[in-house]
Structures are given as structure tokens and as C-alpha cells.
Amino acid sequence: MDVHTGALTWLAQGAASNLLDRLVDRALDGSPPAPAWPRPGGTPAGTVEISVRHHSAAKGRTPVILTLQESGSRTGTVFSLVLGNTARIAVPGGDYFGAAMVVDPARRTLQGIGWSRLTVAARRTSPCLIPAHRPSAPVILQLGLRKPDGTPLFRL
Prior knowledge:
- By secondary structure, this protein is an alpha+beta fold.
- The mean pLDDT is 78.
- The strands form 2 sheets. It has a 4-stranded antiparallel β-sheet. Strands 4-1-7 form a 3-stranded mixed β-sheet, with no helix packed on it.
- Helices cover 20% and strands 38% of the residues.
């Protein structure tokens, strides 16, 4: 399993729990608090500005579930935002992997999924654009996007 699949699987496993509902609610309940990196770093902090691009036919506010992982880590930190907004997160300088899921909570469909590697420079702002594309059934199966009872978490 490559690093992309591992990171997306980690995100998918979190989505399969009640985490997805809480993150969607947080994204849609007005202005969420500024994202914060939970771990202190050994290097000076930089700022990453993460935006997700997705051609969405959905009207209104579309929630995005975003995860950010330090390079080589098996876990990450999950954030929620609204499609079209930019998350500004202060993190220690270094290499990271970002993944995003664009969801339609009303229809329980996964609208898009994408990922990107990024390098955050200490004491600087580093932009990151994650292009999200419509997922295929094999990708959904590979990521394990299923509820504990085995039913699919999302419809395509």
C-alpha cells in the first residue's frame, strides 16, 4: 500500500465512524474555529493555506473533510471546511500530505476525493491546492469506505 492509499484509508476509517457527521456539522454550522495543529514542532512554524478545488454541481455550502499528515506518519489531524474556503493552519516546517473528501451530507454521497503533497517552509506561508475528482467504485472499495456492518458509507 503506498503512502497515498494509506493516508486516504486512515481518513476513510475516521469517516466510517461518527467522525464524519461531527465534521460535516462543524463545517456547516457557521464559521468554524481556526484550525490548529495539535503537536508542537521542533522547527519554527510556517503557515499552510489549503484550498480544495472541485467542480461541484451541488448548490449552497458543500462540506469538505480535510486531513493533514506529517510525512511518514500513519495518523493525521482532521479539519472541516466549506468548499471554496481556505484553511490556514500553523504547522512546524516540513513535508506533509493533505487529503480531502467532498461530501453531500443530504444525499450521503461522496462527491470528490483528492490528495496532494506539500512542503511548509518555516516562517513563511505555503499555498496548497488539492484537486478533488469524482471517485470510482474500485477506489471506494480500496479505501474501505464501509460502515461496521459492511454497507457502503457513501453512494456514488
